[in-house]
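ARCHIVE CARD
CATEGORY: sequence design from structure
SOURCE FIELD: tokenized fold
FIELD CONTENT:
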């Protein structure tokens, strides 16, 4: 079962540049997002959205009901993969420490709320962010994750079919107890999933736009 949120909306524009977004015809206005998060980034891209603004912070400090957080994070991840400019805010618990680093492959938020050192953490996030920082790909008979969130390249490769199946369930959030424990433990040990309440969510993205030749990533 995947957690979903009923018909959220966001603001969208046809250009990355805020000045260009002020020109006539550049605003797409308030765009409803009916249905689950899967496929919404592609839909927004096809509508012409190149800059979007989420209406409310993604709240990871209160995970009693994770649906909104899972939906928001999935949008940010999938839009980051398409190099769409996302304006969003992230709320963490006051004692979150450096937990933001597991999300540092996502486009940095416009505001980080909660921790006392939020301003410095956000500065580090912005300074260190680039596209393709943590991604996964499917090859013939295997899946591979390439992760640079921690300063060096880490690779995780699996050819067992249960890993790919688990990613399909985790992609937009699923109750953690529905994933084979051994597979989930492997993903957790590599910090490839984020636990949000009773749910687990897949962190890497499948990149949709390469900034340079894939051999150099």
């Amino acid at each position: 079962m995947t957690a979903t949120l009923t018909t959220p909306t966001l603001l969208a524009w046809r250009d990355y540049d805020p000045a260009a977004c002020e020109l006539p015809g550049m605003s797409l206005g308030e765009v409803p997002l009916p249905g689950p998060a899967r496929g919404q980034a592609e839909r927004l891209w096809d509508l012409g959205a190149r800059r979007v603004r989420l209406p409310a912070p993604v709240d990871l400090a209160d995970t009693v009901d994770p649906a909104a957080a899972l939906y928001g994070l999935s949008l940010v991840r999938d839009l980051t993969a398409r190099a769409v400019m996302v304006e969003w805010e992230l709320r963490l618990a006051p004692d979150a420490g450096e937990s933001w680093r597991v999300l540092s492959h996502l486009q940095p938020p416009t505001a980080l709320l909660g921790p006392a050192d939020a301003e410095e953490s956000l500065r580090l996030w912005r300074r260190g962010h680039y596209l393709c920082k943590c991604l996964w790909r499917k090859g013939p008979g295997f899946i591979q994750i390439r992760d640079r969130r921690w300063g060096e390249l880490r690779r995780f490769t699996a050819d067992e079919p249960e890993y790919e199946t688990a990613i399909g369930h985790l992609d937009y959030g699923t109750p953690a107890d529905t994933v084979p424990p051994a597979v989930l433990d492997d993903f957790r040990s590599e910090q490839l999933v984020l636990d949000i309440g009773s749910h687990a969510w897949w962190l890497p993205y499948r990149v949709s736009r390469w900034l340079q030749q894939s051999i150099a990533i």
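CARD ANNOTATION: Confidence is low (pLDDT under 50) at residues 1-5. The first helix runs from residue 18 to 21.
SHELF: design records, drawer C
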